[in-house]
């Protein structure tokens, strides 16, 4: 048995004899390498998988807010492009789309979300939803009814 204090996930190999620390007690026994690897993987997984219910609820509500805001601004930018842009000035449609994208950060801050904590996946989702709904709404409005 080692004389130095053991850390939580420290495993010493001596002829398949292991010493692990569970709580404040050191346990020595025979274990296979697969079992040791499985136990450490389960410990790491269980520590990362548990999130408080309040945090999960807030993330869910924030996700709904992201979807609603980006959808509304995408549809509104498509309607603005249809209403105010002519075929000669349709090159400015990308500016309308960029404005709809960049105006969202202050809106999220106003809604009580921490926009500085968004990851690249969040911003990609927001940009994708805004662009797709801009494109679909503008295309549907440009299609003549028969």
TrEMBL record:
InterPro entries in UniProt: EMC6-arch (IPR043941)
Keyword Membrane: yes
Keywords: Membrane, Transmembrane, Transmembrane helix
Stored Pfam families: EMC6_arch
Transmembrane spans: 67-85, 91-111, 123-141
Record's protein name: Uncharacterized protein
């Amino acid at each position: 048995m080692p004389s130095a204090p053991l850390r939580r996930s420290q495993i010493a190999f001596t002829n398949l004899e292991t010493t692990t620390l569970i709580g404040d007690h050191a346990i020595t026994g025979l274990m296979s390498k697969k079992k040791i690897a499985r136990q450490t993987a389960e410990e790491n997984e269980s520590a990362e998988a548990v999130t408080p219910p309040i945090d999960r609820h807030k993330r869910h509500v924030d996700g709904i807010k992201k979807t609603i805001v980006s959808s509304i601004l995408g549809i509104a930018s498509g309607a603005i492009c249809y209403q105010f842009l002519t075929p000669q000035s349709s090159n400015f449609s990308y500016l309308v789309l960029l404005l709809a994208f960049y105006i969202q950060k202050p809106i999220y801050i106003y809604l009580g979300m921490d926009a500085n904590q968004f990851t690249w996946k969040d911003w990609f989702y927001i940009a994708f939803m805004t662009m797709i709904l801009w494109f679909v709404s503008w295309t549907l409005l440009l299609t003549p009814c028969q």
